[in-house]
Amino acid sequence: MPFQGLTVYTFLSMLPNNPSSASVIEVQAVHKSFRNIQAVRGIDLIVHEGEFVALLGPNGAGKTTLVEMIEGIQVPDAGEIRVLGKYWKGHAEELHPHIGIALQETRLIDKLTVTETLSLFASFYELGKKRVAETLSLISLTEKKDSFVLHLSGGQRQRLALGIALLNRPRILILDEPTTGFDPNARQEVWSILLNLKKEGKTALVLTTHYMEEAETLCDRIYILNQGTILKQGSLDDLLGEERTKTLDDLFREWTGRHLHE
Predict the structure, then answer these.
(1) Angle at 204 between CA 132 and CA 69, to 5 degrees
(2) Mean pLDDT value across residues 193-210
(3) Which residues, listed in sequence order, are joined to residue 172 by a DSSP beta bridge?
(4) C-alpha–C-alpha distance, residues 14 and 152, integer Å
(5) Is residue 231 part of a domain?
(6) Residue-by-residue DSSP string for 15-68
(7) What's the CA angle centered on 149, arms 102 and 103, to 5 degrees?
């Protein structure tokens, strides 16, 4: 049964402020190893409808491996993952249309225009020109609609990748370090898109990031990972507690002797 090994306290601590919202991702006691490296060691995690959740931690913490298992790319060695109430095995075709994914470096075709790129991916979902136009507006690329991908800046490319992930109005959006290497202006542009999406309250976000400010700005709850386990989880207020003069990086360094951005 799901969450059989969780204590009542642990389960309740995972609930959002709105307890009536349904869970869209359920991770129970998940383990994953690659040869003799334990990438994920017994992680429990719940994400609810419309909730924005950050996975924060240094390199090697297990963030990307956990996300790849949620996406159905990797299979857990032990434990269970349910997405929208279903397991990936036997339900992949049913689940894929409800999930949007944008990676740190999404490869796009340089010789296509912005509109052609969105139209190509829209055709996979049998979506028409109206949804392409809506998405162009959503990601603030209407003025660049006839520009070749080759001529876009890094921030514009990432907004286009985000637009591709949002075309199908996903119930779950997964972003793996989407603003790494961006200048502050480009990062703010991506944040603005996501904050507008959050207002709609229909899409849950799982975000991996090294940036504490990104997690603080966008997310309702933050999971801090270290060496394949969840070290702490909760809202920003929960994590900081009385330590208002410190940052999450300060606390992480006290807990582990490492920096979050290492």
Answers:
(1) 100
(2) 92
(3) 99, 204
(4) 40
(5) yes
(6) --S-TTSPEEEEEEEEEEEETTEEEEEEEEEEEETT-EEEEE--TTSSHHHHHH
(7) 15
10: Cα within 13 Å, side-chain hemisphere: 13
- How many degrees, rounded to 5, is the angle at CA 252 between CA 249 and CA 255? 155
Band of pLDDT at residue 17, cut at 50, 70 and 90:
very low
Strand order in the sheet with 221-226: 99-102, 172-176, 204-209, 52-56, 221-226, 229-234
The residue segments making up the domain with residue 76 are 8-106+171-256
Question: Would residue 78 count as lying in a domain?
Answer: yes
What residues have CB less than 8 Å from 128, skipping those under 6 apart? 122
CATH assignment of the domain containing 24: 3.40.50.300
- Total structural domains in the chain? 1
Question: Is there a domain that residue 250 lies in?
Answer: yes
Q: pLDDT at residue 10 above 60?
A: no
Burial code of 130-144, b = ≥16 C-beta within 10 A, e = fewer?
ebbeebbebbebeeb
pLDDT in tens, 97-120: 999 998 766 789 999 999 999 999
Residue 234 in tokens: 């909760």
The amino acid at 96: H
What pLDDT does 105 receive?
A: 67
Residue 117 lies in a domain: no
Fill in the DSSP letter of residue 107. -
Cα separation of 59 and 86, whole Å?
30
